[in-house]
Amino acid sequence: TGNFAHSNVTSETFNVASKLMAIGVNNNKIVNDFFKSKSMERIKILGKALSDMKFVSGKKLVYFYLPYETLKEIGASKDDTEGVVEEIINFNESEVSLFLRGEPNGLIKGSMRSKRDKDVNAIAGLFNGGGHIKAAGFTSSLPFDEIVKKVVENL
Predict the structure, then answer these.
(1) Would you give the DSSP letter of residue 65?
(2) Taking a C-beta distance cutoff of 8 angstroms, is the pair 10, 18 a contact?
(3) Partner of 25 at 20 to 30 A CA spacing, among 60, 80, 109, 118?
(4) Where in the chain is the domain with CATH 3.10.310.30?
């Protein structure tokens, strides 16, 4: 549920959370162990993303590209990039985020998120990817600048 932030949260979601608290689930441990505990490599990637991300104001798109070479220079793994797409969309003027990560085979993995009504599943479909209206992904052999151009043209 994204910490109760997404549209799939219902009163039943809170009811279940309440029952878990009543039987002694340690919500502080869950938050700290699963959401706040990050490796040095993950923090470095996040710092790079936050400082190097780009914004296309007319499309309300924020994006960041992490070449595979940079991932290796940092000593990180693809797991260390989890959550980047969710972090960059926190820019207050953005409505859509795009995170592109270079892969060892030369392909680029794309992840997209939408805050409101922009259908990122339709955009991912242009690259034979998918997901749902607010979260989708794809893999492409196109260079990163061509991917960005295609995303911008179709938003």
Answers:
(1) E
(2) no
(3) 80
(4) 39-154
Reported CATH class of domain 39-154: alpha beta
Token pair of 16 as six digits: 């279940």
Q: Which of 45, 52, 104 is nearest to 80 (CA)?
A: 45
Amino acid in the structure at residue 45? I
Q: Evaluate whether 146 touches 112 at the Cβ level (below 8 Å).
A: no
Q: Is 8 exposed, middle or buried (0-12, 13-18, 19+ CB in 10 A)?
A: exposed
DSSP result, 76-144: --GGGGTTHHHHHTTSTT-SEEEEEEE-TTS-EEEEEEESSS--HHHHHHTTT-EEETTEEEEEESS-H
Q: What are phi and psi of 76, to 5 degrees?
A: -100, 165
